[in-house]
Write a structure and sequence with these properties.
The structure holds two protein chains of two kinds.
Chain A: H1 8-12, H2 14-40, H3 44-68, H4 70-91, H5 100-119, H6 123-126, H7 129-143, H8 151-168, H9 171-174, H10 185-213, E1 217-219, E2 223-227, H11 228-244, H12 253-281, H13 296-318
Helix pairs in contact in A: 2-3, 3-4, 4-5, 4-8, 5-7, 5-8, 7-8, 10-11, 10-12, 10-13, 11-12, 12-13
Chain B: H1 2-24, E1 27-30, E2 40-44, H2 51-58, H3 61-66, E3 67-72, H4 73-76, H5 81-89, E4 93-95, H6 101-113, E5 117-120, H7 139-146, E6 151-158, H8 160-163, E7 177-180, H9 192-206
Classes of the chains: A mainly alpha, B alpha/beta.
């Protein structure tokens, strides 16, 4: 499974075609965004749209670079994303001085060890390490300084941070390690491409349908910007997008559509859950790291929920 | 030798600012004034040794060179690394805490007369309790009266106390922001208590609230 030794897939594999396709889509989006400025002037919505498109160039480039290095590249990229996401998540939590060692453990032991386990392709351990041992250690560490104030609330927040920002997110690079029936390691990379394109495509298409047609909010109190029109249009079109990508996956067309549908729906609820947390904490965005999008968590909320479900469905039916 | 020390100081400065950004993603929110090289006294809430590092990190290069943190001589003048960092990296204005408030204000007034800007923590000590802000000491009032032409900029440093609580060795990475408010100045006949209250309120107004932003 050495990706660096075998670079042939870079040339003769669908990966190149996919990234070329993404490049075309982004060029088109960039052209449309700039044209809108010329027609309507630089309104707030259009400016935000262009910021989002520009940020997409950077995100696609980062994924592309990680793909060149295969599993190690993806492990490092997602470990960094986990670090930034966890920093955003814990910033908004009411931890106290007594939680200092829990937080240090999570950042400097839990996070790197989880990604090392993914790197080692040790499915049996990376799938239980944080939910079992991480959960217990964080609960124990929180007692060590004898502070009982808001105990359950504090521990739960840190445990949620661990699950959301590290554990679930680490399932994205873990897709590469699945022993697919084809035996070609690059097919694992394409599973990641499928997941990320469908889930982010679903977000983008929901945004577009919502901006163009959106009237009826799905859950005005949790997330005022999500509308039924955006939801139905976005999920339907992203499911079609997934079906159209069947050729990069081990799935046939109906299964690819079904997988894409599951990814879109779990992804939508991921966005809704993290929105509810934001409302509860009284903020609009998780951070300000990605211009136009907000924080890393604002961009990854749907991936976080979709990745583990997609991994387990694929693992159950399509691995040897 | 002096050149080598200056280069080392500059490299250390970048290293410290880089580390601060890596850990806290620190972000300067210029709400009440613009980043400028006007002569200023930045007065901030104080809850961690990292406080002035954060303010200093979000200042522009030119503003950094003219801005000096005011710090305790007994801590920062010990020979070795601390003195190097205090004297050469941050160009701190060291105050002898034993010598009394009058001489501290005099030292700060002298520095302002030379054209420096200052970073001060008018609470006088690190706030490690649950109250958002301790009562301000009177030094800032004397300083403001002595230097009426200088802009006194309130600065709220958010979250740093959670990054590095008192007595901890390692920082936890959490996002911090440094919020700059609208400059205040003392009116000629304003009583001390009124000015200190106004300065406190100027700080607390910048504190991010519980409600939606």
């Amino acid at each position: 499974m050495t990706y660096l030794a075998d670079r042939r897939w870079l040339l003769d594999h669908p990966t190149l075609l996919l990234f070329a396709g993404l490049g075309v889509v982004l060029l088109l989006a960039t052209a449309i965004g700039r044209t809108l400025v010329m027609i309507h002037g630089n309104t707030q919505t259009i400016d935000n749209l262009n910021q989002r498109i520009d940020a997409w160039w950077v995100m696609v480039a980062a994924m592309g670079i990680a793909f060149i290095f295969g599993l190690p590249g993806l492990v490092i990229l997602f470990a960094l994303l986990s670090f930034w996401a966890l920093r955003e998540f814990l910033t908004l939590t009411p931890t106290r001085h007594a939680d200092h060692s829990s937080l240090l453990l999570l950042f400097f032991v839990g996070l790197p060890v989880q990604y090392l386990l993914v790197w080692q392709q040790w499915y049996g351990l990376y799938s239980i390490f944080l939910p079992v041992y991480g959960f217990l250690v964080l609960a124990i560490a929180a007692t060590l300084r004898g502070d009982a104030e808001n105990f359950l609330q504090r521990v739960s927040f840190v445990q949620w941070g661990m699950m959301i920002c590290i554990y679930f997110l680490s399932h994205v690079p873990a897709l590469v390690t699945l022993p697919l029936a084809s035996g070609r390691p690059a097919d694992g990379l394409l599973l990641i491409a499928f997941l990320v394109i469908v889930v982010q495509g679903s977000d983008v298409l929901q945004y577009i349908f919502g901006k163009l047609l959106g009237r009826h909010p799905v859950s005005p109190r949790l997330s005022p910007s999500k509308t039924w029109e955006g939801l139905v249009g976005g999920i339907a079109s992203a499911t079609l997008l997934g079906a159209a990508l069947w050729w990069i996956t081990p799935f046939n067309v109906p299964v690819a559509a079904g997988m894409a549908f599951v990814i879109c729906v779990t992804g939508f609820f991921g966005g809704l859950v993290l929105s509810a947390i934001k409302r509860d904490r009284g903020v609009k965005d998780w951070g300000r790291m990605i211009r136009g999008h907000g924080g890393v968590l604002d961009r990854l909320d749907s991936v976080i929920f979709a990745a583990p479900v997609f991994l387990h469905l694929t693992r159950y039916w399509y691995t040897v | 030798m002096a050149l080598i020390r200056a280069l080392a100081a500059q490299a250390t400065a970048r290293l410290i600012a880089g580390f601060a950004r890596l850990t806290t993603g620190v972000y300067g929110d210029w709400r009440g004034c613009q980043p400028a090289v006007n002569q200023r006294v930045y007065f901030a809430n104080h809850s961690s040794h990292g406080d002035f590092v954060l303010i200093w990190t979000v200042l522009s290069g030119a503003a950094r060179r003219q801005t000096r943190p005011v710090a305790a001589a007994d801590y920062w003048s010990r020979p070795g690394l601390r003195r190097f960092i205090g004297a050469h990296v941050f160009n701190a204005l060291l105050i002898d805490r034993q010598a009394g408030g009058g001489s501290a204000v005099a030292a700060m007034t002298d520095a302002l007369a030379r054209g420096d800007s200052l970073i001060i923590f008018p609470e006088g000590t690190r706030n490690t309790g649950d109250a958002p802000l301790l009562p301000l000491r009177s030094g800032i009032h004397h300083l403001a009266r002595a230097c009426p032409a200088v802009e006194f900029v309130p600065v709220w440093i958010d979250n740093i106390s959670r990054v590095m609580p008192k007595g901890e060795l390692l920082p936890v990475p959490l996002l911090c922001s440094v919020i700059f408010g609208e400059p205040i100045s003392v009116s000629p006949d304003e009583p001390r208590e009124a000015f200190l209250l106004r300065a406190s309120q100027a700080l607390l107004r910048l504190k991010p609230g519980e409600g939606p932003s």
